[in-house]
Amino acid sequence: MNTELFGIVATYLLTLVIAIPLGKYLAKVFAGEKVWTDFLKPLETGIYKLSGINIKEEMDWKQHMKALLTINLVWLVYGFFVLIYQDKLPLNPDGNPGMTPDLAFNTIISFVVNCNLQHYSGESGLTYLTQHFVIMFLHFVSAATGIAAAVVFFKAFREKTTVKLGNFWEFFVKSITRLLLPLSLVVALILALNGTPTSYEGKDQFISMQGDTVNVSRGPAAGMIAIKHIGTNGGGWFGVNSAHPLENPNYLTDSVELIAQVILPIAMVIAFGIFIRRRKLSWIIFGVMTIGMFLLLIPTVSSELGGNPLIAKMGVSQATGAMEGKEVRFGPAISGYWSTVTTIISTGSVNSMHDSTMPLTGMWQLLGMMINAFFGGCGVGILNYFIYLIIAVFISGLMVGRTPEFLGHKVEAREVKIAALITLLSPFLILAGTALASFVFTNHGDAAWVVQPKNWLSNQGFHGFSEMLYEMTSSNANNGSGFEGLGDNNIFWNVTTGFVLFLGRFLPIIGPVAIAGLLGAKKHVPESAGTLKTDTLTFGLMTFAVIVVLNALSYFPALALGPLAEYFTMLK
Amino acid sequence: MKKYIIQSLRLTGVLLVLLCVIYPLIVAFAGRFSKGNGGGEKISRNGKVVGYVLLGQSFTKPEYFWGRPSAVGYNAAGSAGSNKGPSNPDYLKQISDRIDTLLKYNPGLVRSAIPADMVTASGSGLDPNISEQGAIIQIKRIAAYRKLNERKVAELVVSNTKGPLFGMFGPTTVNVLRLNLALDELKNK
Fold first, then answer.
1. Beta-strand pair B161-162/B173-175
2. Please, what's the largest Cα pairwise distance for chain B?
């Protein structure tokens, strides 16, 4: 038991030891200062040349967003067709079929937006070609998109007044060459040496000790599993993601995968402060996020270690905790830690089945995704946090009766409107989506879809409601984990979550970048005694309060109907 | 706008080569030096492959140590967990049946000695391990079926138990496949 808790502590400390220097490095890379990876410059120059890019052309925030959306659109079209026709393309040793259009629609959006919701199972739903040329490719580029967007946002606050925010392609390419690719390579090698497959051989077959014939799905998975964590993507090679023994062979790889998914989101926060020369602001943000993380983490681990009270009544020993959907080599403690990390960060990879976790654990997972700003996804986490921060600035401004300011720029009606709309978007998508699903489930149970609505839920009652709520929340947060008991590969879920995914990704990127762009272009107001300081403990607490109040108001009713109701019925 | 489209297309092409051809080939090359040469480590007996070290397989005969319940019957081409919620009545009935089965087959076993991992399905459906306690409760049954000395079987369990990582981090595990292979050896001697 204690060794399991030590495992969490060691993993967390190691994460910080790597993430903090990485943040400093990251700031230097994007500020164009000297770093030891400058030997990669010729590679980058080559990429720019072949792509016809001149990185000296600086863009304003609108041009940045145009470039971002254009290339994302290219990936959407490209990936959609490759997925549909994958059965006719090479590298398909297992002879898997092409995707149906609605599944391909969902899958391609899901991976372009860095969500990685998977309505298929990797073993049977993809080929080695699509695993690499669609899924793994998007793992890299969607993460780089998020990082590049965050750097544009950083740029807006670096100088006093500026409209020129650097070149999008440069940020994007450097995210890959200086961060994602080298880090993934390290993780991939560790995984490969611990037994994760890397070769292109197809399915294997053997006769087990008891004489059963067993087919074994394999494939070049290690490289993809590395970037799926480094890039906070989460979409795995095998159906059960990092619970699969080949995807996550032992406790060591489990820790490595856990560390890999948190280092960039933490590094982004550290880098922000260094980049805009306000380190204290960064540490305040880091503090708020860390407190938020621990407030979700501690009750999660404790409820998993406590085990299932209904199983306890049957008299068996749950010495290690709740084991349904968990692997013995990890145990409930680190599985609980993983479930917190993967939901506050938008990774969405799992090493245990969230559907089978305790009701309150499920609630903390949901909350992590609803808030979506305690470190959050690669690049986008800090953008989400910025929206809360602007709301906090606005409310504080109202309290003291002054025009609110952020880093020397007046925050006016236009910026606050954008922030408010983005804040309202998440509850709207999640709650309206869940309401629609519940409506279809209750009133159109016999609709002739691949999975009839009445058969959607593998668990009835409150837990069934949680399954639908989780799916919509995960889509909106671009998380990608699921209560996998939900029968989600049918036209309703493929299409609805497809739209939620798309809106939940691009609006929360465009919104904060637009606010930053608008603020950055405004005249710089020198600090005075009347300035609201945003890098103080008080303001940190204020932001935290805004996060808590906004999310409690938005989601408490839905959480009460799902996980809370289940929890209280289990107590009686 | 047109400029962005052309740049996007070209950049996508270049990155496809770098990220989807060069990168995985480097990893595949490195993987050749791992156990199992990148295809997953196998275990053979008398020259025949009997399993993958990392993948659990189904053991249902009473003379073998059993693994954990699996939602997919240890199908290594279609991993899945049960995805049963903690309060699902059908699921709780299933757990209760599993407890009864264990009690029936293992003489002298009491409920409070059964660890949760032996009655709950794993996340992957392919869990290669059970807890130490999960192996200990099966010793009596195995010894009786194989007409072996209980102490010898217990020693075998101890020697196949793997402690935490570096002795400090994570749980203690028993690899069921390795344990059963060693068990067959024991009989032959």
1. antiparallel
2. 80
Tokens of A127: 């080929």
Identify the residue among A96, A180, A198, A357 best suited for mutation to test binding to B, counting B beta carbons within 10 A and taking the highest. Answer: A198
DSSP class per residue in A67-110: HHHHHHHHHHHHHHHHHHTGGGSS--TT-PPPPPHHHHHHHHHH
Tokens 């080559």 correspond to A46
d(CA A507, CA A401) in angstroms, rounded, equals: 30
Per-block average pLDDT, block size 10, for chain A (572 residues)?
A: 88 96 96 94 96 94 95 95 93 90 93 91 91 95 96 91 93 96 97 93 92 93 95 92 95 96 96 94 96 96 93 90 95 95 94 94 96 92 94 91 87 94 95 96 89 90 94 94 90 93 94 94 86 89 96 95 94 79
CB neighbours (10 Å) of residue A314? 15
Longest dimension (CA), chain A: 80
**A-proximal residues of B, 33-92, CB under 8 Å:** 33-42, 48-61, 64, 68, 74-88, 91-92
Helix, strand or coil for residue A248? coil
- Of B116, B129, B165, B133, give the one whose Cα is nearest residue A3: B165
CB-based contacts of A469: which residues, under 8 Å, 6+ apart?
A366, A430, A434, A558, A562
Interface test with B, best of A173, A184, A256, A324 (most B CBs within 10 A): A324
Three-state DSSP at A459 gives coil
ipTM: 0.94
User: Identity (one letter) of the amino acid at A282?
Assistant: S
Main-chain dihedrals φ then ψ at residue A88, nearest 5 degrees: -95, -5
Q: How far is CA A101 from CA A75, A80, A82, A98, A106, in A?
A: 16, 8, 11, 9, 9
Q: Which backbone phi and psi does A313 adopt, to 5 degrees? A: -65, -25
What residue has token string 């100088």? A159
- DSSP letter string over chain B? -HHHHHHHHHHHHHHHHIIIIIHHHHHHHHHTTSTTTTS--EEEETTEEEEETTS-----STTS------TTSS-TTS-------TT-HHHHHHHHHHHHHHHHHSTT--GGG-BGGGTS--SSS---EE-HHHHHTTHHHHHHHHT--HHHHHHHHHHTEE-SBTTTBS--EEEHHHHHHHHHHHHH-
